[in-house]
What we know:
Largest sheet: 5 strands, antiparallel
Helix content: 25-40%
Radius of gyration: 28 Å
Structural class: alpha/beta
Number of helices: 11
Amino acid sequence: xxxxxxxxxxxxxxxxxxxxxxxxxxxxxxxxxxxxxxxxxxxxxxxxxxxxxxxxxxxxxxxxxxxxxxxxxxxxxxxxxxxxxxxxxxxxxxxxxxxxxxxxxxxxxxxxxxxxxxxxxxxxxxxxxxxxxxxxxxxxxxxxxxxxxxxxxxxxxxxxxxxxxxxxxxxxxxxxxxxxxxxxxxxxxxxxxxxxxxxxxxxxxxxxxxxxxxxxxxxxxxxxxxxxxxxxxxxxxxxxxxxxxxxxxxxxxxxxxxxxxxxxxxxxxxxxxxxxxxxxxxxxxxxxxxxxxxxxxxxxxxxxxxxxxxxxxxxxxxxxxxxxxxxxxxxxxxxxxxxxxxxxxxxxxxxxxxxxxxxxxxxxxxxxxxxxxxxxxxxxxxxxxxxxxxxxxxxxxxxxxxxxxxxxxxxxxxxx
Length: 416
């Protein structure tokens, strides 16, 4: 099999010398990059005996492993280096290899090539991560904490990393009003009922609202249903804090999340339907249609209260999952919108994994994957998403002394 003149770069995990040679080294591996597009040269990083080599074949002009926003979409060839122990390869160019002060033409005896493969491509969803409501709630909490001790009444957001950060900066978090020790209390981004707000004020707390404006919109929609004589039906999870806030002030209401819940509804002359803001809009519409079909003689009014950030992340997740072999969904274990993203992605991609941070990633998830997608829930900070993507890049490029993990490159590694 004939190849263009190979340009070879040696990599070593945890190398700190990569920067000297124009590459980059970040907490797990060093990946050499194109240093001169004109000559298509890669600088070498010293590698121990029996290490593996990456050979860039006919590398496009101006391309590098960080091209296309770090997706590592260049082509590589896996080779087994036949170099003497301790020999440091320097620049490889134009078919010659420099060894011990002399150079000679590279021949097939120097490297045993295997078939061409493509490094795993990493894609981000067009819309992902923290929404404006969560950002505003966190900013308000930190601003008020700077003025006085502060307690969040319940989890400000459903993301443990964010909550740990808030605790480290002095924000207390309590689920029970009787346990609150500060004079100032913050209602979370998920909102609360007037009943719960009055309970806090009766205890002489100064109450600060961090409720998302789009949750306020859902509260207004439900109040308008009741005032107009409609029986309120909420599409959502009955035990979710947002749904409790929407329903605790109501004398009568129903919560539905499945076809069975719709079948259990009693007939009413008028139904007013709203939704938990983080429900998938497709599910909401499906249940609305079921209710209309089940009660054709009832007047049914629907107000779409699913928030725009949720809709954007759901639609972007569908588009992403359809392109990927594996999708990584980043978000808190207790985050409803993150779990809904997981469920949506599983309809279009066979392998979907939910992680809270980069530490949860497992190499075996990526076995034989050519394209891996990343999406994230509305309470996931940018730095966590960036860390997950960076770690995926490391896993994609990681080569140990004996080769890649089992099945990771589908058997294309050269045998040493």
